[in-house]
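User: Earlier you gave me the apo prediction for this protein. Now I'd like the version with zinc ion bound, so I can compare the two side by side. Same sequence as before, with the ligand SMILES added.
Assistant: Got it. Here's the input I'm using:
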Amino acid sequence: MLLIHCPYCEETLPEAEFAHAGQAHIIRPENPSAQTDEEWESFLFIRSNVKGPHYERWRHLHGCGRFFNAVRDTVSDRFLTTYKAGAPRPDLETLTGEVK
Amino acid sequence: MNAPISSFDPFALVETSAAQVRVASPCGRLSLRARGDLAPLNAALGLTLPEKIGQRVSAGNLEAICLGPDEWKLETETGAVAGIEEACAKVYAELPHALVDISAREATFVIEGVRAAELLTLGCPRDIATIEVGTGRRTVFDGATVLIWRDGESSFRMDVWNSFAPHLFALLDTGCRELAAEAA
Ligand SMILES: [Zn+2]
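And here is the structure of the complex with zinc ion:
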């Protein structure tokens, strides 16, 4: 089982307490009605399918209930880091080699 | 008052040489959500709400546990709920918050005995040792969200939603018997 660090609980806990919640840093357009169909489609449906470090959202469902962000390597399943929702996207280079 | 209901035998009890599980008498339960300076709520409740997840603070018959960055659960005597609601309503304008009586939502199992902590490992993937005595955690037990209060080294309370209670009790019942059979 994966162990995931919750940035709110500040504990590293079993995966079974968490739920995956899709790609991170998807920003809802300020004015949806100004969007073209293609732009709106892209916001709603188009996601990257990364091989390697992927920025994604998780939720500590059976715990503090909070959504947070993580960088997980989709090849090794290793979590490079986790950080609070709203925090800036960490730079990949600073994460390489860092074990959380 | 949100009156407690019971979807299963309120006197359900299992007791073996390993551990015992019983259903606690109904109590008052409140869910509290608030952000910012908590001073008005602290004054209304007569305690200082803990700000570290898992920490507990009690004053008289009222106990508060921090479940999330802006979430607490309060437990008290059944008759004290209305008074707490009234006191918090008075500070609502000063500190907007959500206070909901959830007394009817849950049942509590009291789990005690020499192998009580081991019994919990049956359904809980989390290391029970990381829940220090005097704290508590919301976690998962066989797929259901539960709140575990650790009152002593071998003394726990588990708050479970009514609909999961019969299943979880059956599992704990089996576990108590298995641990005892193993020891024999
Ligand atoms: Zn958490």
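For your comparison, keep in mind: The first strand of chain B starts at residue 13 and ends at 15.
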